[in-house]
Amino acid sequence: MAYHLCVTAMVLAAYLTAAKACPSSCTCDPVWKAVDCSHRKFLSIPDGIPADTTMLHLEENSFQQVNSSQFSNYTKLQTLYLYNNNISTIEAGAFAELEHLSTLRLFTNHLSTLENGMFQGLTNLSLLDLSRNRILTIPDDVFSSLQNLEVLHLWDNQIIFVSLNAFRGLDNLHHLTLDGNNLTAVPTQSFQTVPKLETLQILNLPVTSLPAYAFKSLPHLKALHIGDWPRLEFLSPEAFDGLDLTYLSLYRCNLQSLPFEGIRRQWGLKQLLLYDNPIANIRPNQFYNMSQLEELYLNDMLLDVLDSDIFKDLTSLIKLDMSSNYFKSIPPTLFRKLRRLEYLDLSFNQLSYLPQQAFQTLHSLRTVRLGENPLQCDCDLKWLKVWEGKFTAKEIVATCSRPLKLHGLELKNLNVSNFICELPYITGYSKDVWAKEGEDVMLECKATGFPQPRISWVTPDGLHLDPDSKYDGKLKVSNEIVLYIQNVTDADEGEYMCLANNKGGSDKVKITLTVGEYPFKPSVLPQVADMQPRVEDQTKVMMSRTQQKRKKANPALVAGVIIAAAVLIGLVFVLVWIVRKAPIDRGLALRGSTSEEMRMLPSRDQTNENVALSFIETIA
């Protein structure tokens, strides 16, 4: 008990001592020996900071310069934060007494020049952050006293030149960032003095070319970050020769093709970032011998067609991002070798259908992103919902686009019974067509169903045509529903069959094309065959009309029929006149009739008219 009381008293005494020594505008932590004087608009170091302070926060103040020996009283410092000030000058020897300092953050200040002696005495410094300043050049030997420095940040400055011996003395430097500067060429010669460098970050530069063996002086380099080089025009296939990388990025570099031969020589590569380049095609075997690759980013490119063999060598792949491209389909065997794949992003493409076979070997898959694709949630995609239900650990992000009743609904909120197909039904097609020899004819056929049926045609001689058929100058399927026949002849005459097919089934109708003289005024025949609605209860009528139109009209026969009809009509009129004028012996009709029956007898005129009408109806 006495021991615990003693320790408590010592801690309390330390707090009381620190409270007396701590500046009124700062916060002091005597246990961690940390002092926070940030956000106070100080122009210089405030008085009263304990001499044994190891961490000092002076960021977000109004310092304009760091004077020589300004920190000479704080020799215990290990971490010093001076970022977000207005520092434009650091005098030589300003940190000379801080031999224990390991971290110095000076980013977001107004430094424009680096001079020798500026970092004198910082023999144990491991991290120096000079990013977001206004530095223009890196002179020789400016970091020569920092023999234990491991991390150097120089990103977002205005550097236009790095001298040959700028990094001399940085024998233990492992991480260097030069992003966002005005370098038009990578200072490859300057890297000769940092042979232990493991990570080099050179993003967002106006570099126009990357020559062969650009990094040959960095044998220990493992991670090379290149990206946001919009002006890059040339990338040598040998640019990375001499390296043994595990990480390589080449994103957003305006590359229409990539030096896959050079990339393949990085046998141990595990992460490859190629996204946001205008690459439209990746050929088979371009990832040959990259069996160690675990992450591949091919998103935001122009890929529209995928070869089934492009990933066959990536047997260790765990993460694949192919989002924001333009492909409409996936080969069934595209992922067959990716048995270790856990994350797959196919969002923001033009996929309406996914082949079940493509996912059969992906036993390790945990996340599938399919959002922003025009997915048709029909019977052919039912497997995806079933698959989701079997593996609850999987995260499948997908939204239906069609049919309309499912538009915008997420896969996770649907049932298996929602995934159905509607049989094709031809709703309208061209009437049977007459055409003169030498004319052009267009036959139309429309159908409904889900998925939307695909229209194809069969000619009288058995030729199958669809929108993908090659145009031979005679027959062509256009707009997916129209059969175009150019310069018709007798050989084109006959029955044309329209076929409508989808995953649910098929439907068909026949259209007859007759070639010859018109049996009626040509002016009433359109060049494009009229569409007629399909009504099932008129099938027999339409078949009858079709049979009539198949027979060519005989002009002599037509004339004979017209003359016979005229003679018959004349005879009818004569007969009616005779009946009206001829007397009828009413006595014959009255014999044996009662008075009641006599009242029921029609008048003479009425009787004659009825007889005539009955005769006419019989003839008709």
TrEMBL record:
Keyword Transmembrane helix: yes
Bilayer topology annotation: Single-pass membrane protein
Record's GO cellular component terms: plasma membrane
Transmembrane segments: 556-579
The Ig-like domain, residue ranges: 424-514
Annotated InterPro entries: Cys-rich_flank_reg_C, Ig-like_dom, Ig-like_dom_sf, Ig-like_fold, Ig_I-set, Ig_sub, Ig_sub2, Leu-rich_rpt
Position of the signal peptide: 1-21
GO molecular function: signaling receptor activity
Major localisation: membrane
Annotated keywords: Disulfide bond, Glycoprotein, Leucine-rich repeat, Membrane, Repeat, Signal, Transmembrane, Transmembrane helix
Annotated localization: Membrane
Pfam families according to UniProt: I-set, LRR_8
PANTHER family: ANTIGEN BSP, PUTATIVE-RELATED, CD180 MOLECULE
Name the record gives this protein: Leucine-rich repeat and immunoglobulin-like domain-containing nogo receptor-interacting protein 3
Gene this protein is translated from: LOC118418868
